[in-house]
Design brief:
This protein has 405 residues and is an alpha/beta fold. The chain contains 17 helices and 14 strands. The chain has a 7-stranded mixed β-sheet with strand order 8-7-6-1-2-5-14, sandwiched between helices.
Length: 405
């Protein structure tokens, strides 16, 4: 097993999760140094292996993105021998992550109560569509559904009367994974004090809700639900995207000092004398007029020209980059956000890096995503299985191993 670095080095995590929310939780922990063993179903493995196209020489790009830095084994949990393999792994695990439907793990004899009887320190992280309690606990979860039900789609889009729009990224999946990792780390700290593990339960629904902080504050205060505002902010102006002569920029003039700096940059100090723009409250009340005035100004120069002028004036601003442009941005590169760990078959494959930096115990993206069953033999060997036993399990179809692994 390769030696791991990072603040979570020595933490053993079993990931029984597929597609996105659970795997995000696993990759966050893995990037911070945890040993994450991904247990894939048989046959076929994680469904994201079939999210094609795109692929790199036959390997699904989606799977490789979500599962780099993990070791992978394949186990048939419908077989007694397969369940016994998993139970043995979990006896010495610190954390298990699962995102099955309600009751699935219990039907397999692998629910929390059963597992903690053998491993009282186990932290059992469940990520589901709506959480393990409440009237929707039995429902499956999808990012699109969660975005709609959490209120996110009611505040995303170009404006009133337009069709509802989802956030472009699967934001509830990704956020649920991050919340799951946060919950796991809190449970690790609690275990250091008590010696006991616990359940950690979060959901896509709640992950969507936490993104409505500002809009919920407005609704609580006014009794009215705010609607979509395009790129504009519900509480500050000007704070949105403007079109330039050759592209778009984002302008972050979210206080009075920056508003006055904007007027200097666009060389229109007279707008400060307009009562519609006198302060933030007035600008929010007359947002459409403000947008028209600023749009006319920004259309006169190129993005590069405006960014230079705004930076010189001390106004927060930035370009609207494509994803590929972001990958090449010098700041993303300087922050190690586009590493290229080694894949067993493909060599270096670019991925997204750890977004948290540690001065004393730096995390790393050290390994590419596993081939299907790549580490089955190694992991089972580490958990007391002999070569003959592993061969027997493979022969029975209880586990699968990659060729040559």
């Amino acid at each position: 097993m390769p030696e791991r670095r990072g603040p979570l080095a020595g933490l053993k995590v079993i990931e029984l999760a597929h597609i996105m929310a659970g795997p995000v939780c696993g990759l966050m922990l893995a990037d911070m140094g945890a040993e994450v063993i991904k247990v894939e179903k048989m046959p076929g493995g994680d469904d994201s292996r079939r999210f094609l196209p795109p692929a790199i020489e036959g390997e699904a790009a989606a799977f490789m993105m979500m599962n780099r830095n993990k070791r992978g084994i394949a186990v048939d949990l419908k077989q007694d021998q397969g369940r016994e393999v998993l139970r043995r792994l979990l006896k010495s695990a610190d954390v298990v992550i699962e995102n099955y439907r309600q009751g699935t793990m219990e039907r397999l004899g692998l629910g929390y109560e059963s597992l903690r009887a053998e491993n009282p320190g186990l932290i059992y992280c469940e990520i589901s569509g709506f959480g393990r309690s409440g009237p929707y606990a039995e429902r499956g979860g999808f990012d699109l559904i969660a975005q709609g039900m959490s209120g996110l789609m009611s505040i995303t889009g170009e404006g009133e009367g337009r069709p509802p729009v989802k956030v472009g990224a699967p934001v509830t999946d990704i956020t649920a994974g991050i919340l799951g990792a946060m919950g796991v780390l809190a449970a690790v700290v609690a275990r250091q004090k008590s010696g006991r593990g616990q359940r950690v339960d979060t959901s896509l629904f709640e992950a969507g809700i936490v993104h409505t902080y500002w809009q919920s504050a407005i609704a609580f205060a006014t009794g009215q639900s705010p609607g979509p505002m395009g790129s504009a902010h519900p509480l500050n102006a000007p704070y949105q995207a403007f079109q330039t002569a050759d592209g778009w920029i984002n302008l972050g003039a979210a206080n009075q000092k920056n508003w006055l700096r904007v007027l200097d940059a666009i060389e229109q100090p007279e707008l400060n004398d307009d009562p519609r723009f006198a302060d933030n409250a007035a600008r929010m009340d007359h947002l459409k007029h403000l947008e028209l005035a600023l749009s006319a100004a920004f259309a006169k120069r190129t993005t590069a020209d405006w960014l230079a002028r705004l930076e010189a004036a001390g106004v927060p601003a930035g370009p609207v980059l494509s994803v590929a442009e972001m990958h090449e941005d010098p700041q993303a590169r300087a922050r190690a956000m586009v590493p290229a760990p080694e894949h067993a078959r493909l060599g270096p494959v670019k991925t997204i890096g750890l977004p948290v930096k540690f001065s004393e115990t730096p995390g790393e993206v050290a390994m590419g995503a596993p081939l299907y069953g790549q580490h089955t033999r190694a992991v089972l060997g580490e958990h007391g299985y002999g070569e003959a036993e592993i061969d027997s399990l493979i022969g029975r179809g209880a586990v699968a191993a990659a060729e040559g692994a």
